[in-house]
Amino acid sequence: MDVICPACNTVYRIPDRKIPKSRIATAACKKCGRKLTISAASRASAPARSVTGSSPRIPDAITTSTRTDSAADRQPGGPEAGAVFSARHALRFGWRALKQEPVLVIVGMFIIPVCIQMVFEVFNGVVPEDLWPISLFLAAVAIFLELAVTLGIAGICLKICDGKATGFRDLHAHFPQTLTYLVSSIIFGLLCIGGFIFLIVPGVLLSLWLQFYGFVIVDEQVGPITALKKSYAVARGRLWRVFTFSCLLGFYNILGLLLCGMGLLITVPVSFIAWAYLYRCLQGRTPLPNA
What we know:
mainly alpha; 5% strand; single chain; 10 helices
């Protein structure tokens, strides 16, 4: 039987005698680390095919959730792991999460980051121009705090997608990884700038492929280079899906901006959660209702 990794499309040929008959086994993809589910049902439902030739279709039985294969792990009305991503389900998922935890979502994902930026602007405005080292120091502190909170927001969004309880403490839960996130952001920015210099298109492609590195850092606690590589492995082959959803979220937040800016209190947090929803779906994991 051929087992295909849904993240990087690597094909593994497994002898039928090694496939468990009465239980579900898991294995890690040697190329991207993605967990693969192997069972006798996969062999029964997957048609025989050659490894070479046209682009293989991922068998439905292989791309089930890595947690369990029961109906309890499926979100009602949402796509199952490995199924076609639905932007409508992602936005609805974000909206439901906002209604369940409105204070945490609105304050933690929008008001606190805006307040950090506003406090920096106030202090920067009262510092005399000749004291530029102080202004530089304040800018560094503001950037570091914003990156730390951004990682916290990513962690909250992933917890919401995994059906775990969240709280304001999660905003600083990933503070030790802020330096890793800073280095990753610098590398990401340099790669995108270099890509835009060369005919623009490479910059667009790199920005779409690599933009999940923050989720990877929070999710797997890896280094900057590994985070960018894993982001590429997740997004590769789903470029059109990532691009169209990015455009949809941009339009969604423009609508929020048109409502005297107050709509951003809703659209920005929902966009964060919906983006984490996309990341989980690209991993082949079904987002669950919030605990």
